[in-house]
Write a structure and sequence with these properties.
By secondary structure, the chain is mainly α. It is built from 5 helices and 2 strands. It is elongated, with a radius of gyration of 26 Å.
Amino acid sequence: MLEGKLSAGPRHLAIPVPADLLGHRSGGDRRRRPTPMLSRYAWFGGRRTGGRRRRERSNIYVDQHGPILLTVVVALTALNFLDAYFTVLFLSYGGQELNPVVELLLAFGPWPFLLAKSLGVGLCVGFLTLTKNFQAARVGLAALTTGYLALLGWHFYLLGHLPD
């Protein structure tokens, strides 16, 4: 049992008192709990840009993300739309889609494909944005950006070889 000291008089007369009588809550200090990933501040304006203590730099959730991450997210969104546009363009020239899920979505037309692709990538990028201070999320954002840039290069190569 945790004990506290009741300091009503001189130090040498302190009486041990059980912690539950001192008014401690069983859940501990709420300020020492980690911020949840989806707190109200993530949706309606945040306050935290980093950890409260100097050693809290990784594996924490924050409410505000900064201009660099905003640039990466906007770039990923633009690259996603360019990929969808080039996919539809190349298919109109007789190209073949190798991904069976995308092929199924394209059977319903280009708009359902674009909606599903945007929602899927948007949810993934949103999750990576919320978890940006975790090493795996930083690797995921870098890999996604690199992959989309390589894919855009491939699209430009194919664009140069389209028949007139």
